[in-house]
Amino acid sequence: MSPQIDAIVxxxxxxxxxxxxxxxxxPLAGKPLIAHAxxxxxxxxxxxxxxxTGHQSDELAAALNDYAVNFVHNPDYAExxxxxxxxxxRALPTDLDGVVLCLGDMPLVVSAHxxxxxxxxxxxxxxxxxTKNAVVTRYCSQGRCFPTYCSSVATPAHVxxxxxxxxxxxxxx
Length: 173
Fold this sequence. Notes:
Blueprint: E1 5-11, E2 27-28, E3 31-32, H1 33-42, E4 49-53, H2 57-63, E5 70-73, H3 81-90, E6 98-103, H4 111-119, E7 128-129, E8 135-141, E9 144-150, H5 156-163
Parallel strand pairs: 1-4, 1-6, 4-5
Antiparallel strand pairs: 2-3, 6-7, 8-9
């Protein structure tokens, strides 16, 4: 049986580097930038697609009205990407094996890229494992956080996966 993996598309950011406009709503090849990431996720092997919104959530929902996605609003979007990851993970069904995170502003990531990540799960764990018996702890020092994955079935791949997320905030999930 293949693993049950959903996709989370992060689309809650303030787009501060884009100036006054929300970059996710800017047109690219005839559609909003965010539509490219959503289409990649929908066309992949992911079971369902969840779009985390925050800044200009109504405008993003309108731009994605024709797509079969689950919208998750992150009221704490101004706190950064880690708050959107937390919101997205909290909204997931409890029976999933994992989730692949997608950034809404990466139009060159296509379904085939996501499928490669999903197909190699779990040996290399390029997606986040969803495990009921796991505990995620963080060691923080000098402003940097180092998440560690602790469970009775942890492997070096698990720890590597979580350590690659060292930019998450030091706040507890």
